[in-house]
Task: inverse folding
């Protein structure tokens, strides 16, 4: 396992990962963070992490570099680090959406061990889901390192083809927003049926949590769990029929397809190597 992990960018996801690593027993001082804004580093320094505003200083010390900056600035952040990356050859883990391995390697001066990761926001509460793709230069030991780092905040799963990261984005990367959207709709519908806002909210959120926990713990798939709740001629059956009449499955298919397509578009727009 790597001795030091350096996060370039100290935003929410880097904060979540650093916290998860410490909770898993990683020494706080072996987690390095850099950011162009000193204010973003203050809380990390207070937790015992090594901090700097100099990305090159971090790159000189870290065994693993986690790229946690906005996709739009990735090229300008990486280009000044190319010589260090080529001489030290750290494992590179990118959690930036839409940037292909080829572009990251190009900006860093050539072929390197690079892992693309697509975490999601529940990582902020140690309940994330992350899809991972490893470039051919990544060794088995480095895959284990990447899995340990992202696994500090939740579930990790590998895909064996880079374009599948767009499917991961569609399902889990953007997925929390879909569930929040459903929660919004259920709360609003509950209020329309006469519940006060606090009651509608509490019932909706607890039901979402309970359903997810049941699905995770069950030895059957969600379709069977749904059937068990849906008594013939009952209230739930009437609701499911309304969803089917509205074409809910097709709506989700279109929505996730649009999300994946946008991911592929971003790879072209943000990952240019010219």
Result:
């Amino acid at each position: 396992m790597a001795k030091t992990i350096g996060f370039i960018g100290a935003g929410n996801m880097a904060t979540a990962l650093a916290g998860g690593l410490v909770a898993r027993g990683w020494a706080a001082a072996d987690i390095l963070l850099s950011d162009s804004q000193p204010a973003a580093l203050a809380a990390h320094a207070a937790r015992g992490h090594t901090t700097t505003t100099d990305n090159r200083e971090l790159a000189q010390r870290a065994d693993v570099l986690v790229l946690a900056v906005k996709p739009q600035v990735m090229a300008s952040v990486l280009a000044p680090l190319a010589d260090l990356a080529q001489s030290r050859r750290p494992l590179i883990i990118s959690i930036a959406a839409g940037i292909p391995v080829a572009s990251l390697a190009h900006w860093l001066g050539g072929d390197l061990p690079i892992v693309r990761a697509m975490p999601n926001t529940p990582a902020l509460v140690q309940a994330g889901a992350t899809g991972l793709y490893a470039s051919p230069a990544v060794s088995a030991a480095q895959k284990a390192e990447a899995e340990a780092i992202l696994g500090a905040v939740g579930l990790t799963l590998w895909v064996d083809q880079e374009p599948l990261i767009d499917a991961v984005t569609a399902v889990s990367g953007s997925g929390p927003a879909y569930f929040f959207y459903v929660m919004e709709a259920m709360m609003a519908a509950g209020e329309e049926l006469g519940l006060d806002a606090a009651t509608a909210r509490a019932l909706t959120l607890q039901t979402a949590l309970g359903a997810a926990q049941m699905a995770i713990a069950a030895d059957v798939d969600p379709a069977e769990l749904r059937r068990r709740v849906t008594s013939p001629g009952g209230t739930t059956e009437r609701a499911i029929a309304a969803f089917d009449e509205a074409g809910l499955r097709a709506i989700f298919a279109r929505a996730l397809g649009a999300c994946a397509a946008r991911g592929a578009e971003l790879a072209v727009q943000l990952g240019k190597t010219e």
About this structure: The first strand starts at residue 5 and ends at 8.
